[in-house]
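Sample intake sheet
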Amino acid sequence: MGPCAFAKLCEILRGIGCLKDTRNASIEEQVAKFLYILAHNERIRTVSFFFRRSNEIISRHFHNVLRAVIYLEDQFLLQPNGAEVPQQIRNSHRFYPYFKDCVEAIDGTHIRVKVSAKDAPRYRGRKEYTTQNVLAACDFDMRFTYVLPGWEGTASDSRIIKNALSREDKLIIPRGKYYLVDAGFMLRSGLMAPYRGVRYHLKEYSARGPENVEELFNHRHSSLRNVIERTFGVLKKRFPIISGMTEPFFPVDTVTEIILACCILHNYLMGVDPDERLIAEVDQEISNDDIHNEARNNRNDSDADARRGAILRTSIATRMWNDYSLKMSKTLKKKTDNESKATNMRWTDDMDGFLLNVMLEEQNNGNRPNGIWTSHAFSNMCKKCSESFGYTVEKGNIKNRIKTLKGTFHSCYDLFKNMSGFAWNPITALFEAEDEVWEPLIEANSNAKKWKRTPIHHYEKLFDLFSKDRANGEGSISAKEKVRRWEKDREDSVNLEENIDCFGEFSMPNVDSYSPRVSPSYSCETSSKKAKKTPEMVEMLEKQMEIFQSGIDNVAASIRQGNEIAKEGLAIMMQGHEIAKEGLAIMERGRPRCYSEDEVFSELVKIGIPTEHQLDAMLFLIKDPTKMRAFFGVPTTELRRQILLKMMYPKEP
């Protein structure tokens, strides 16, 4: 961020009134601290040393600026209305008129978070560490228009976008328009996903161009949707605090707010200081990245909106292919079948039951810490399944089957959780209920109809294994929802203060001089009506005051008694301290003194030992500690000289 962009940002924050200069720190200093932490991913204590401020001051300024930046969401997070065709589409013959109804691109990205061991299984998805899955939409100018952080890392993109379409601050799809999404999302009339099982990533077309209608559609779809990946790359490169591979220093709720603030700042900078060098670096990294398969939504959506989406995609792809064929002036060969896939292992219900029993056994043996199966657990599963099934079962077979079972369970669990009237029958393996209970559920969710006749075996075992791993999205929140929550908290705080003021102005009635015609009132009431007190209420107030006074007396007596006990304990401690000091002094007096070589040599020089005999005398004394103590025990210099000579040269008898 350049100086001009920094100064303009400070002026914007000053203008909205959410950030103010303090006696010791200007808005510029507070924003500088905030940006330093985002750009360097530093701890609060490191920044406090750099800025010569206390940890508490740095933390308070950081959160003040963080909140102020999120309040800018209504200026920098603006959803499209679909009135105009994006310039990047309108000016390209590869995209126009085929994608003329496309407004933006949507994708999710994983950002590392720090959570407790209890919550870790919900946040540890396809990554080896805990993350939250952030859903975002961006336009073709690489600016975010909608951001929804907070969902756990195990949540799929399809599940998050369904939630985004039904929230209070929901993702808006203009009528007759659609967003570009990858294969991890469901195909809808408003969500244009690519063909599955067909080449998609741009790098896959570098050596061989598209050869059929589906490949051509996927190639151009990927070229256009690539803007969201580039935007995520620039965001993380600009703000290392959300791209670090190490565990973050802030709790998960603060990380959610940091993500929102970083997206808002990114949009601001794309308008005033886009940094083309940074964008070029990200483009180069994306082109050099290895191809990775996206997590795919394998469900066969059959509702009406999915069919409309499929029809729309087919019409776009067909028109695009016809124009492409005419331009190339040649007939492309028909689509070839995909290479025969390796035959998958067939699982039966009995095999599933055996695998689930083994998994429960391994879990009870402690081989699933924090929701992660250990290598030892997988080895035991493979060994026991191979022995039971009669052929080799590899780790990949186990992991794929666990993924399938987990997905099936979650579909059922989400549908029937907290639903009254339904019960799972272990004999039929069906969820059973009366027809009048099924009808409203099927009407609200067409996918529920299949579970009326489709059994789900071993549901109780699946519940024990996977119910705690299910992401619930309780921490997800958009910038607009965050601002509304802050506003509500502020209103509640103001109302609480008003109530406290009202109680502060209330005076207890004088019971002794009570008159039924006079009643106390709250000064904050606007009504002129006075509540009349009855003798029964007066008696109740007297009893309550007596109980209250008795409680206060008991507390005061306990405090006084505690003070006396504390004084006695302190006196005993002081007495013990004095005894310990005396004992230490006695020990010091009785402990033999150890003299260093420097002290011995200095004393020999002092008593006048000739130079040629000084080393011999020093070695003589050092060799025998008893003689050294005798030497230093003599009080005068002359006597020390005499005793040394007698010890070194004793007279023969």
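Comment: The chain has six domains: 3-71, 77-261+275-328, 349-469, 479-507, 531-590, 597-648. The mean pLDDT is 81.
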